[in-house]
Write a structure and sequence with these properties.
The protein is mainly α and about 280 residues long. It has 10 helices and 2 strands. The protein starts with a helix and ends in a 13-residue tail after the last helix. It comes from Nocardia tenerifensis.
Amino acid sequence: MTSGQPVLADEHAERRRTARRGVWVFLVGVVVLSAPAMLFAVAARNDLGVLLLMWAPGLAALIARVVLREGFDDISLRIGGRRGWWAMPLALGYPVAIAVAAYGVGWATGLAEYTSSAGWVSFGGELLAGVVLGTAIGLVFALGEELGWRGYLLTRLIDAEVPRPVLVSGSIWAAWHLPLIIGGSYLTGNGGSVAVIAVLFVAQVTVVSYVFARVRLDTGSVWPAVVLHASWNSVIQTVFDPHTAGPHAWLWLGEQGVLTLAANVIGAVIVCRRPGRLLRKPSP
C-alpha cells in the first residue's frame, strides 16, 4: 500500500494540472466564440443569434476536450437512472415556485402590475404550456450553455481544487451575460439603471447557480441542469415577464428583480441545505 501512494499522488497532481489547463482552454474558447456570437445576437435580435450565443460555452467545452484529449466519457448525456429522473420535477418546478412567490408578492403589493385582462384560469393554462412546451423548445438552447457551464467548467474547477468552485463558476456564468446588459440588448428594455440591473443580475445568477450545480452533481447528469435552464427561461421570460408592468417593475421582478433574488436565496438554501454528492457522471 505504501509503494502505491506516490503513484496515486502523481495521478492526483496530473489530474489537477489537466483540469487547470482545461479551465483556461475553455475560458479562452468561450471568449473567442462568444464575441462574434454576441455581436450577431445584438444585431440580428432573433432566435438564431440567441442560439449561436448560447452554444458558445458548449462548443468551447467540446474544443477543450479535443485539444486536451480528455475524451467525452464524463460529458454526462445519460439521465442517470432513478436519481436523474427524480431530479426532473425539481428542475421543472423550481422556476415555477420562484416565479409564483416573487411575482405573486410583487403583483399583490402593487410594486408591479399584473397586465393580463384574461382570468387566472387562462394564465394557468399559459403557465402550463410554458412549463411543458416552452421548456421542450428551450432544451435546444439550454443544452449549449449547460454542456459548458455545468458539464465542463464546474467539474474542472472542482478537479483543479479551486476554492468554492460553484461560486466561481456561477460568477463566470453571470459575467458572461454582462456585455449584453451593458450594451442595452438584455434586461434593459423596460428602463432602469443599467448598473443596478447588472449588479442585481450577477447576484441572481450566482445564487441560482447553486441549484444548477446541485442537480448536476447529485445526479451525475447534465440533463437536470439543462431542463432547469430551459424551464427558467420559459417560465420567467415568456410567461411571467410579459404580464408584468409598472415604472419600477424592473427593480422588483424579472431576472434582475429584488423579489426574484430574495425568492432564489430562500430556494437555494432549501435545495442545498443538506450535503450533496459529487458525481462526474451517472452511476451505472
